[in-house]
Task: structure prediction
Amino acid sequence: MDIIAEGLAFPEGPVVMPDGSVILVEIKRQTLTRVWKGRSEVIAHLGGGPNGAAFGPDGAIYVTNNGGFAWHDLGGLTIPGYAAPDYTTGRVERVDLASGTFERVYDKIGEHKLSGPNDLVFDKAGGFWFTDLGKNYARTIDRGGLYYAKPDGSLIKEAAYGFTGLNGVGLSPDEQTVYAAETDTGKLWAFDVVGEGEVAAPGLGAPGGRCIAVQPRHVFFDSLAVQANGDVCVATILDGGVTTITPAGVSTHTPLPDVLVTNIAFGGADMRDAYITLSSTGKLAKVRWPAPGLKLNFNPY
Result:
């Protein structure tokens, strides 16, 4: 394992660049940041809680912003908590990399505000699926769901709603399935795509999708990335590491030295360099992965 960067303020959402740098968010610092081995620079100070990042078809970075957390120190580890005291709403933002300027693209759907947008993935058509984790308070919880939107602000759809913390999101290689990880339950959900921003109707007792896997131990699921062979790699909290799940639901676990492993992204000439955020200790690590990752649409890598 090679440590690419450390001293980061709860890093997530890594985007691997062709020059060897990695663009990521620092949720506690409220920034979109670019890191190289041994140095870093802030691209934009977004405020709130920038949580996920991805290149759009226009060459800009789109960020899912959860609106902000309260933060705690637990024995030197950085731990997110309830909604920040100054929280107002979640949103999706567009960041121009050259200038660092940013604009809000979405902060509501219809009359309902976005609570805590978490992660996003672009399809080949140029739209993006994103998850809303919801928002936790001392006595109540805002639920979240799965959404689809166009980056120009012209369309946003609610595909599924009612989950307790939908987090990571990714597309199968044929883009006929959207995968999403549910944090509190440690479940991986699969949604069958039936149209633009539309998924198949849920089964009885489910808010949407098909439950692919549930872990036998108590863990939380965070963000995810899809391998070229279609397996899904889910960053795993408590039992810190990455859980790789086949479309048939078979799980294997790769442990890593942080209780809050939150993201994985792929790069390298053979797409077998895995960049993993070790968030409670503020590090970005690179490891060689046993299988290549799926190349993301519009990523310049």
In short: The chain has a mean pLDDT of 96. The first strand starts at residue 2 and ends at 5.
